[in-house]
Amino acid sequence: MSKQWSERVCEEFYRQGDLEQKFELEISPLCNQQKDSIPSIQIGFMTYIVEPLFREWARFTGNSTLSENMLSHLAHNKAQWKSLLSKQHRRRGSGQDSAAPTSETLEQTEGATP
């Protein structure tokens, strides 16, 4: 389910970027589907938004079982996205895929279930 929502959000970002490009505007950060892949967007979101929030929550709750579980699941999900990003970089390096991956190319990537 996480993967589906990630794809939906990024598709919205990409549509915005396409419109900005159509009207010859500067493309907003994270909205350029030629540069910004779904895995890299998700890793950045987890690193700069979710992880600091969860760490502060853990500090606030005294490292409760819930906060430990939250951080554990976050680490697992982040590792899954990093693995997917690595696979896509290898594919791109072999010339199989020149553009940043979108939801269509994520579907083609084996074992992609973050």
TrEMBL record:
Specify the domain of life of the species encoding this protein: Eukaryota
- Spell out where the chain crosses the membrane: none
Q: Does the keyword Hydrolase apply?
A: yes
Q: Where is the composition biased (Polar residues)?
A: 95-114
Tell me which UniProt keywords the record has, alphabetically.
Hydrolase, Metal-binding
Q: Does the keyword Metal-binding apply?
A: yes
Gene Ontology biological process terms, A to Z:
signal transduction
What Gene Ontology molecular function terms does this protein carry?
A: 3',5'-cyclic-nucleotide phosphodiesterase activity; metal ion binding
Which segments constitute the PDEase domain? Answer: 1-88
Positions of the region Disordered? 85-114
| InterPro entries per the UniProt record, alphabetical | PDEase_catalytic_dom (IPR002073), PDEase_catalytic_dom_sf (IPR036971)
The protein's name: PDEase domain-containing protein
